[in-house]
Structure prediction request, 243 residues.
Amino acid sequence: MEITFQTNVESREFLVSVVGVTYSNSDGTDRQVILSRSKPGEIVKLVREYDNEFDSDAVAIFNSKGEQLGYLPKGDRLARHIDSGGIVTAKIKSIIGGPSFFEKLLKKSGKSYGCVLLITKGDYNWSIVNLFLEESQEIEKILVKAKKLEATKPDQAIKHYNKAINMIVEMDSQGILAASWRRARHPINRLSLLLEKQQEFEAAYNSIIEYESFNDKCGLVKTDQDSINKRKERLHKKLTKGS
Prediction:
């Protein structure tokens, strides 16, 4: 049976309040000043900040002049949609706060300016996404085959697991978009278990260390992670015993 991945996702609109509006930008510009001259209807650009030390899902907001207004709220799931190649557009719905008419006359600061965005979350570019999903499916086929070989041909199973791992690393190296659509999970738990059963303790331990250095976007399920942690500790004791 042929599997089709494409689905239709209707565009939907929602409002989001911009955060971090009282801070200055790295170039010294004041976000409050920028907001004071911003107008409803202005198109803004959402930019992912992958190296943000405070929020790995950070999405910065810039106007057409390249001036930063602030950020989407921390934990907003829109970052994942952007990473997955989802179409997102945004514009200023309203500028709120700021000094009143009389405060302006008296040159008082008044309330801080705030900004509310109207965000339109659209569909994905399925012509690209489907390619990554197909790539992930090929990895999953290898993992299934490896699992079936574990009991009768463990050496062959190990080779298949290593092949799948190489494909996973290659897929993730293509960028955030590719990694976001990988559904095949890293088989480090099965691989290290087999190596340990084969009494290849050093190889099993090194495979775990190598995995820990890999930035696994898909991650492991909790049971696999717990098994890995216990196996690593057990292997370390075996390898250092008597040294």
